[in-house]
Every structure is written in structure tokens, then in C-alpha cells.
Write a structure and sequence with these properties.
The protein has about 300 residues and is α/β, with parallel strands linked by helices. The chain has one domain (about 5-175, about 205-230, about 275-290): Rossmann fold. The chain has helices at about 15-25, 65-75, 95-115, 145-155, 180-190, 205-220, 235-245, 280, 290-300, and strands at about 5-10, 50-55, 75-80, 120-125, 165-170, 170, 195, 200, 205, 225, 235, 255. A six-stranded parallel β-sheet has the order 2-1-3-4-5-10, sandwiched between helices. A two-stranded parallel sheet has the order 6-9. The chain has a two-stranded parallel ribbon with strand order 7-12. β3 (about 75-80), α3 and β4 form a beta-alpha-beta unit. It is globular and about 55 Å long. Bound molecules: NADP nicotinamide-adenine-dinucleotide phosphate.
Length: about 300
């Protein structure tokens, strides 16, 4: 594949990983919008030489293995999607969560620097406390409320200045395990669901995130970038929209406050952590589609 940009993806069988790998290979991705080209350049087959590594292929917490793979593969770009993402479990598993979300990102950054390979890693809106009262921009002050957010913030800080960090939020992939599937399954069986009306954020459809990551892989812009689908939303709004799409009404969807959840989730979550994509669009990339558009594509594809 001479001339192809060689891209190594870690955590490649996760929710974002499967969509990114297929996108880079110019293969179809369920729920994607083929008309949305944020950088106005179609992806052509063979443009990228993709090395997709699952957890089993490469455990990013093993420094020697990471060093060996980076030396052997000679990638131009590493996209790190390996992460500890179980937000509530992390509260009682801080050591493992830190090792994966913080230490291994620092190791990847250092070792990518040694082999002159550009690192792109993905972070989260949970680095914020939700008290701003408006959408968060890239250089807003962070203040994570939970172990997951603390370790992801530490991972951001472990990156070198020329690495790229893409913060995203509420990621939903057709091939991922997520609440949209749960809501759709339950309402289609006639079961009711309860979702919180007091957590506001930005949903991100992983097919769109994958396409956005391709722009970042091509351009390798340093620093922090936010990417999410448009318009802030609550989980209740999403649940109602899913029900209307699947069964034609939202009568089975009920509102609940976070404080009334039973059991109360172990990890605290920000009440409002929507991500502004102003930097993304003002840098010339196409505006992300609205969440309702992404959701309709997701539900049609599933
Ligand atoms: N999901 C969200 O709502 C959300 C929101 C904001 C940001 N993010 C960020 O987006 C990125 C991708 O998330 P995602 O939704 O795709 O998560 P995911 O589905 O949980 O995927 C994470 C991947 O990491 C792999 N992994 C775990 N431990 C590893 C290790 N030691 N070495 C190598 N791989 C390992 C997992 O493999 P196994 O399952 O086989 O262990 C899995 O394939 C992460 O950085 C996450 O923090 C996600």
C-alpha cells in the first residue's frame, strides 16, 4: 500500500473503533451519512493502510508491547480508542482506570514521539463539572466529578503539545452496547422506561465521530478539539424520540430526576456538559448533523 497513510487503531473493536476502522477502509458503516463530508474530501479505498488492534492484539497498559508494536508497524498516525469506559464501575476500580485512561496515554504519547508518529486520543465531556451553564469550549476549566472523568483529564494532560485530543460525549454506535438499543428494545416489547430530565449534554453518533476522526487523521491538528452532534439534549428527550420512532408515541417513556434514581448511580455526572463545536466549524470543518438526524439514521440502520 505505498502512498497510503498508515493508521494504527487501538481499542479497535470498541464502539467507536469498529466504525472508525470501517470508515478508514471506505466500507459502509451502519447509521452513517455518506453525504456528510466534514472536510469535503471523499475517502477512497486504499487511502489508509489500517492496522486495527483489539485489546487482545495489544494491551496498551503493557509498555514493552506498545514500544515493540510501534517500532514494527511504523504507523504515521495512532488513534487511541482503548479506554476504561465503565463510568460507575470506575468508582471502585480507580487503579485500573488510571492505568488505562491516564498512564497508558502518557506512554503512548512518549513512544509515538520517539518514532515520530502522530497521536490522536479521545476524551470526554465528563472532565467538566457541569456548572458553567452553557456549552463547554476547549479551553474551559475542567473539574471532573467522578473517577472516570479524573483519569480521562489526567490522560489529556499526559499528552504532548503536538498530540491531538478529541473530546466527545454520549457516544452512540449502532454496533455498540448503549441506551438507544435498550430503549428501542424495551418500548417495542411494550415495557416502560424512565430517563432523567436533569442531565443535559450532546449526543454523538459514532458513525459521525468516525468520519470526523478521518479529517483529524488527515490534518493532524495539535491540541484539544470538541466533536459532538448538534443541539444539546437530555436523556429524556432522546428516550422520547426513540420511542416515537419505534412505536409511534412516547407514552411508555417517563421522566425521573437523577436524585430519585433507584439505585443511585455510583458515579456523579455533570448536570450540563454539552460540548461546543464552534472551534471545529470555525476551522473550516463541516457542522455536525443534529442529534435528531443521527438518531433517525441509527434507528433506521439497527
Ligand atoms: N461511550 C461514550 O459514551 C463516550 C463518551 C465520551 C468519550 N468516550 C471516549 O471515546 C473513546 C472510545 O469509547 P467507546 O465508546 O468506543 O468505548 P468502548 O466501546 O468501551 O471501547 C473501548 C475499547 O478499549 C478496549 N480496551 C480495554 N482495555 C484495553 C487495554 N488495556 N488495551 C487495549 N484495549 C483495551 C476494549 O476492549 P475489551 O472490551 O475487549 O476489553 C474496547 O474495545 C474512549 O476514549 C472513551 O473514553 C466515550
Amino acid at each position: 500500500m505505498s502512498g497510503a497513510l498508515r493508521v494504527l487503531v487501538t481499542g479497535a473493536t470498541g464502539q467507536v473503533g469498529v466504525d472508525l476502522v470501517d470508515t478508514l477502509r471506505a466500507e459502509s458503516v451502519p447509521g452513517s451519512d455518506p453525504t456528510w463530508q466534514p472536510d469535503s474530501r471523499e475517502i477512497f479505498p486504499g487511502e489508509f493502510d489500517v492496522i486495527a488492534l483489539s485489546h487482545r492484539d495489544l494491551d496498551v497498559t503493557r509498555r514493552d508491547d506498545v514500544a515493540r508494536v510501534l517500532k514494527n508497524v511504523r504507523a504515521d498516525v495512532v488513534v487511541n480508542l482503548a479506554a476504561y469506559t465503565r463510568v460507575d464501575a470506575a468508582e471502585n476500580d480507580a487503579v485500573a482506570c488510571t492505568e488505562l485512561n491516564d498512564t497508558s496515554v502518557g506512554v503512548l504519547s512518549e513512544l509515538c514521539g520517539e518514532v515520530q508518529c502522530h497521536l490522536i486520543t479521545v476524551s470526554t465531556d465528563f472532565v467538566f463539572d457541569g456548572n458553567k451553564g452553557a456549552a463547554y469550549v476547549e479551553d474551559d476549566v475542567t473539574n471532573p466529578l467522578n473517577v472516570y472523568g479524573l483519569t480521562k483529564r489526567a490522560g489529556e494532560l499526559a499528552c504532548a503539545a503536538n498530540d491531538t485530543v478529541v473530546r466527545t460525549s454520549w457516544v452512540l454506535g449502532v454496533r455498540g452496547k448503549n441506551v438507544v438499543h435498550l430503549i428501542a428494545d424495551r418500548v417495542s416489547r411494550g415495557e416502560s422506561v424512565r430517563f432523567v430530565s436533569d442531565q443535559r449534554g450532546t449526543a454523538t453518533f459514532s458513525a459521525d465521530l468516525a468520519r470526523a476522526l478521518v479529517s483529524v487523521i488527515r490534518d493532524q491538528p495539535a491540541g484539544m478539539w470538541h466533536f459532538a452532534n448538534g443541539e444539546d439534549v437530555t436523556w429524556l428527550d432522546i428516550a422520547r424520540a426513540v420511542a416515537r420512532h419505534v412505536v409511534g408515541n412516547d407514552e411508555l417513556v417517563h421522566s425521573v430526576l437523577t436524585s430519585d434514581l433507584d439505585p443511585v448511580p455510583l458515579a456523579k455526572r455533570p448536570a450540563r456538559s454539552d460540548l461546543s463545536t464552534h472551534k471545529w466549524t470555525s476551522s473550516g470543518y463541516g457542522a455536525p448533523r443534529a442529534w435528531s438526524n443521527g438518531l433517525a439514521r441509527f434507528l433506521d440502520a439497527r
